[in-house]
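Assess this today:

___
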Amino acid sequence: MASIPVPDLWPIARTGQRWLLRAKRREAGVDGHRMIFLERGRPGPGRPTLVLIHGFASMKENWALWMQKLPSDWHLLIPDLPGLGESQYQPAASYRYERQAERLRDWLSEYPGDNLHLAGSSMGGAIAAILAHKLNQPPRSVTLLNSAGIPEHPDVDINAPFKSDRDAILIPGDWAGVYRMFNSVGNGKPTVPGLAMTGLLGPDLLKRQASLRHIFNDMLADALAP
């Protein structure tokens, strides 16, 4: 039986969300990649520039709730990391932590660095930490949220083959995997947001299986990985 095509509604939802957040969609060229990012506000005296860096299999829109809570006069920069979100993916490129940090460093060179703050979640936390060391002018602060690169269990061999089906949760290959990805957090029970995210982001995620595998393997191969 042929599968029923599912419409990809995420581009429409993403545009509406951006409008509600009063953010501008920008584009920059970085290391041969077309990188898309959101910008709200402008740099200026007394205004911090805060860069929000998302995690693996994620995107700039994951910071939407944070953007609602942050002061409206701050200058916010929220990129889709190269290879993820709306930013360009290149099969021959490296997506190790350090290389991604270097790309962000080059991008940020276009902005004032005297009042720069970094925040990163998961994979983005590891990239933020490396980026802080690579900037010509150190950031005022670095905030790491559930950062990758900090092992919780030193006795775990991260290079060993995945046990059980954790791999399928991180890189879903079918709709069942997408459902489990969004409903395996919290108490592990299905939630209304989890079901909504499955339908909204499922088509996009399923198209990215090969690129997500590439990026994940590069993360594990990075010399700065735990």
